[in-house]
Amino acid sequence: MARYTGPVCKLCRREGQKLFLKGQKCYTEKCPVERRGYPPGQHGPAQARRRKQSDYALQLREKQKVKRMYGLQEAQFRNLFQRAAREGGVTGENLLIGLETRLDNVIFRLGLAASRNQARQLVRHRHVEVNGRTVDVPSYQVSPGDDIAVKTRSRELEPIEVALGSRTRPDLVEWLTLDEKNRVARVVRKPTRDDIPMEVQEQLIVELYSK
Hints:
This protein is α+β, with helices and mostly antiparallel strands. Helix 6 packs across helix 7, helix 7 packs across helix 11 and helix 8 packs across helix 9. It contains eleven helices and five strands, in the order αααααααααβββαββα. The relative contact order is 0.14.
């Protein structure tokens, strides 16, 4: 399935909440979710009036929400879930940790990009190095001890400068460190569920894929 290229605000409206897919614009612009609090399409208002959702609908919406926040396609998301299920521990937490340790998400968490989509572009355009080696795969999984750097020739790129100087830039998560001047970061440790600042019911996703 091709990557979604339509209006991202429709995705937010479908999930009924801000997913912050447009980066800084989500903070500075009036969001369609606030103006039209119902799903897009001609049947959107009717769906909003429904008071009761089935268990399956709740599970599906939670999965779609997380998948869209991280910008993954269905096959990518399912593969990540299957890998999480094979690991020891809690599958739902393993899934979120796997999403958080993707290279594109790490670039976003470091504040080097205004959104995960922008971070994905920086990686694909070969502006990022991991342990001194160029990595252009957004799904690359970082590990504790990895050094992540913006290439010297790319340090002054406008998107990076704007992201770092933004007033809405999120706080740096505890499992990462950043030398902002040199654009060099390090993965200090593996993140835990408490380190992931997202209101997500990951158990619903586990239940959906376990059917």
